[in-house]
């Protein structure tokens, strides 16, 4: 396979975008990425999106987005892997460029979640869980992650305060990201006194419902300098893995096996390990998720994730900053876009472009995104060339 | 890229499968393909499916199907391209094997459509059209294809009888396919006197609502003989293309630009042309669709598609048999599975395994599947090695 670079990224302001439709926000992000890359055409496109059928009554996003981006008749493929859709879409752009099938590939992600009511949104998201064994019982995603949190507390002594520290950290980071949905700080007291959603998860332990899109332009590494004068970022590792879709069938509900597996594959391909990373964008759909993810990525030992945010290890300026973008927690979580937005942050960090939230001297970073309670995961590793 | 072979295929009996859930029918087809291929593991999987969120309240099919097929933690990706989902999934399996990323890849397709009522099914399928400009006006897919049919009649003199001949032919073929949903013949009189759905399309001009799945196993051509003693079928061409999602924005509503483009790419890659084909599996979701498709594939001149079934050109024993499997019309149309089921027929035909509906001496064939009114298309060309 050919080496693959990312030469452009784009993301619009996330939030409740009542005045824009799904196609509008996708095209906005795609055009930003195209402009950033300096390309005059694209050869192929991927659209990561979880459940636009339920959110806005629209499938067939390959055709729709190619049409509205005015790039027909190029191949355009919609990838769905629940909340990991964007990360899995990136992997397929990586494979397509690597294979030689296409040179310039746009990988976008999008979700328009705010056009439905809260109950409908909860239902739409629940389709990432096992419909016949989980949803049928009435469980929702806050409920499933609450089970994971309780298990983690039971096995490892993790505390509610440690969960809250993840939210405080990511909002600290997000307060420096003008594109974030909630670019403000929260205090530990605010998190711990916020309304309980599913014990032990409070509202400020949860990522929000968001409209948003993000996009990246990939090309063969050897062509990258033809298009851009900016520093080139290479994708040096890609891992994708699955786990059981239902939480109750796993040996340890608080261990993310698919993340561990995808990371193993990506580390091996990249020839780096956790100690080589300068920053990580991880899937903090709930505070407990970040805790479990950093363990599965090997950033901390198993069971030690709860202490990481509390101790400052994963904060900007700490040993391994996690979610400097604000993460899903503060930046927002338009599920299909999240995996691509992680790449936007990563590329801008590795180029040194993000201002006050810059990780100084960042050269190597990792993104991790997962679907459902971790039934699917994509991990990518990036290096500034 | 490496050369890619198909070494196993599988498909179960299609129909209204009340006693089985979506995961059951997918796993059945996947196991048949694995057994047919003689492999003891798979490295990666694709699941083509259009809108399981709306049909059965379940997304995240990569994780679900990997789980129920007991192949976690391999990468598993759900591909959506409306009714072309299966064909686009095949293309991604082809790219992944070709790239060297994986050796043995299972490409499956599935749709469980009969668990909802007719109105809900019509709504679910309408999400393949432009929600904001088409569905909002109340138009459904029979209505959209009826517009295409009227345009074709107006421009080219195509008749209602010619449409009906497509149905008669495909049911003739389907009567020889024991896995078909409707394995029986229909007469021209029966088609022409069947209930009108959307003028000029009658119920027997329409493909049915179906539960079904299909699967294929891909591997590098050079490894194929390690696994199977059966004749090896190579994928020699792959094309994927898009068109505007909405019908009204095309220059000619009866011309399938994405099919023409995908075919052009696939022919070029394969080094063959329409005259080299021994058989074609085409997307006859409505009788008019087959007429438009065979024109866009270059099997007949533009405007001449109506005469093809009438004259016997596209029947078994004719110059270029189209839809010897029975097509979507008689075999059924579980939308996400259709593109993969075409491959099942193609591989079994090229191996010479299908009994009375065998195209004698078939060596080279083409499959074409499309989403919506042709907003996305995948075309593949196959050769018996």
Number of helices of chain A: 14
Q: What's the architecture of the largest domain in chain A in CATH terms?
A: 3-Layer(aba) Sandwich
User: Strand order within the widest sheet of chain A?
Assistant: 3-2-4-7-1-8-11-10-9
Largest sheet of chain A: 9 strands, mixed
Order of helices and strands of chain A: EHEHHEHEHHHHEEEHEHEHHHHEE
Task: Please state the CA-atom Rg of chain A, rounded to the nearest Å.
Answer: 19 Å
What does this structure look like?
Two copies of one chain form a homodimer. Chain A is α/β, with parallel strands linked by helices and about 375 residues long. Chain A folds into two domains: about 5-115 and about 210-225, 3-Layer(aba) Sandwich (Peroxisomal Thiolase, Chain A, domain 1); about 130-205 and about 235-385, 3-Layer(aba) Sandwich (Peroxisomal Thiolase, Chain A, domain 1). Helix content of chain A is about 40%, strand content about 20%. Chain A contains 14 helices and eleven strands. A nine-stranded mixed beta sheet of chain A has the order 3-2-4-7-1-8-11-10-9, with helices on both faces. In chain A, strands 5-6 form a two-stranded antiparallel sheet. In chain A, helix 4 (about 85-100) crosses helix 14, helix 7 (about 160-175) crosses helix 12 (about 305-310) and helix 11 (about 285-295) crosses helix 12 (about 305-310). At the A-B interface, helix 2, helix 3, strand 3, helix 4 and helix 5 of A face helix 2, helix 3, strand 3, helix 4 and helix 5 of B. Strand 3 of chain A pairs antiparallel with strand 3 of chain B.
């Amino acid at each position: 396979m050919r080496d693959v670079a990312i030469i452009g990224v784009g993301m619009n302001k996330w939030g409740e975008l009542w005045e824009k439709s799904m196609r509008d926000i996708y095209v906005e992000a795609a055009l930003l990425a195209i402009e950033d890359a300096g390309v005059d055409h694209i050869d192929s496109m991927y659209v990561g999106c979880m459940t636009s059928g339920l959110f806005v009554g629209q499938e067939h996003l390959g055709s729709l987005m190619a049409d509205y981006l005015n790039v027909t008749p190029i191949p355009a493929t919609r990838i769905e892997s629940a909340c990991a859709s964007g990360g899995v879409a990136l992997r397929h752009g990586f494979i397509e460029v690597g294979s030689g099938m296409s040179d310039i590939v746009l990988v976008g992600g999008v979700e328009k979640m705010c056009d439905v009511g809260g109950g409908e949104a909860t239902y739409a998201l629940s389709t990432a869980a096992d419909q016949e064994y989980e949803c049928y019982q009435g469980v929702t995603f806050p409920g499933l992650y609450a089970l994971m949190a309780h298990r983690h507390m039971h096995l490892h002594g993790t505390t509610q305060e440690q969960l809250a520290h993840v939210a405080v950290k990511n909002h600290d980071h997000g307060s420096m990201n003008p594109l974030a949905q909630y670019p403000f700080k929260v205090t530990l007291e605010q998190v711990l006194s916020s309304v309980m959603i599913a014990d032990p998860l409070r509202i400020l332990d949860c990522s929000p419902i968001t409209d948003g899109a993000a996009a990246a332009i990939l090309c063969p590494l050897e062509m990258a300098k033809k298009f851009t004068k900016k520093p080139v970022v290479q994708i040096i590792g890609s891992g994708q893995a699955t786990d059981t879709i239902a939480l109750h069938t796993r040996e340890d509900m608080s261990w993310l096996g698919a993340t561990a597996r995808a990371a193993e594959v990506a580390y091996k391909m990249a020839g780096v390990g956790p100690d080589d990373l300068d920053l990580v964008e991880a899937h903090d759909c709930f505070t407990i998720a970040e805790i479990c993810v950093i363990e599965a990525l090997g950033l901390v030992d198993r069971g030690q994730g709860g202490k990481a945010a509390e101790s400052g290890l994963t904060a900007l300026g700490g040993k391994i900053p996690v979610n400097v973008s604000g993460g899903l927690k503060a930046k927002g979580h338009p599920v299909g876009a999240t995996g691509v937005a992680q790449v936007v942050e990563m590329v801008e960090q590795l180029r040194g472009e993000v201002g006050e939230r810059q990780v100084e001297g960042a050269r190597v970073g990792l993104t991790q995104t997962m679907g459902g309670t971790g039934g699917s995961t994509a991990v990518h590793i990036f290096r500034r060339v």
